[in-house]
Amino acid sequence: MKSPIIEHLQKETDSIILFHSATGKDSISLLDMLYPFFKRIVCVYMYIVPDLEHVNKYIRWAENKYQVEFLQVPHFILNDYVKTGYMGIQKNEDVKYSTLSKLDKQIRVKTGINHTVYGFKKSDSMNRRFMLKELLFEGYNQKTQKAYPLTDWNNALALKYIAHKRLLPPLSYNQKTRSTGFDITDANLMAWLKQYYPNDLQKVTEQFPATKTILFEHEYSKDI
Questions:
Q1: How many domains does the chain fold into?
Q2: If DSSP codes are grouped into helix, strand and coil, which group holds residue 122?
Q3: CB burial of residue 205 (10 Å; 0-12, 13-18, 19+)
Q4: Which of 27, 34, 82, 188 has a CA between 20 and 30 Å from the CA of residue 153?
Q5: Cα separation of 211 and 191, whole Å?
Q6: What is the mean pLDDT of the chain?
Q7: Containing domain of residue 154, as a range?
């Protein structure tokens, strides 16, 4: 499947950077759409907690299926967490704040690739809708060389695409809300890790000690 945005991007380059969430529906769909049309795809996974087993399974699946490169890098928000000691993480006020744009530039230098693809959608939020509407070319910013092929998609369409192509289903930490984001303040995430990946939970609680309280309160509330 090739969208007009991918078609436009392919005319400019044969190599792209793809910011990839590893377990999310948008990233799973987008990588499958992109891989037939580019010689080199470098997927960038931004971690909050490094080397989690359940995330690595998705990364290995994508590497094997598409023969793409994966770079695992600290999420830019981690600098904010460390600077403020968020959720009990070891505090360092000397750390400088970072942004997605700064990280993008660093990855471009590291890889030698100048075009970046994101899985942002207008339906994600009001801010995303405004941002994507400002693009000079619908779904592509010629000046920044950033592309957004899923700009007009929604969650249902991404799930339908995954089912149709029989891809690895996205991960959900909470079946009731279909939550897929790795949010360390989410009690459902903590409970899910405890049940299925206790070693991953240990890594999370070691880095962010305050998550232990979140899990305790979640389990305590079920007993009331």
A1: 2
A2: helix
A3: buried
A4: 188
A5: 11
A6: 90
A7: 4-171
Tell me which amino acid residue 188 is: N
* Same domain flag for 42 and 114: yes
**Which amino acid belongs to residue 81?**
Y
Q: Do residues 39 and 14 both lie within one domain?
A: yes
Task: Name every residue whose Cβ is closer than 8 Å to that of residue 74 and which is 6 or more positions away in sequence.
Answer: 46, 47, 50
Query: Taking the CB of residue 166, how many other CB atoms lie within 10 A of it?
Result: 7
pLDDT one-digit tens code per residue, 86-125: 999 999 999 999 999 999 999 999 999 999 999 888 766 5
**pLDDT number for residue 121:** 84
| Cα distance between the two ends of the chain | 51
Prediction pTM value: 0.90
97: CATH = 3.40.50.620
Tell me if 10 sits within 8 A of 145, measured CB to CB: no
**What are the residues facing 43 on neighbouring strands?**
18, 70
Residue pLDDT, tens place only, 167-190: 999 998 876 655 567 899 999 999
Reported as type and span, the H/E element at residue 79 is: helix 77-84
Q: How far apart are CA 173 and CA 180, in angstroms?
A: 6
- Residue entry with tokens 């959608």: 121
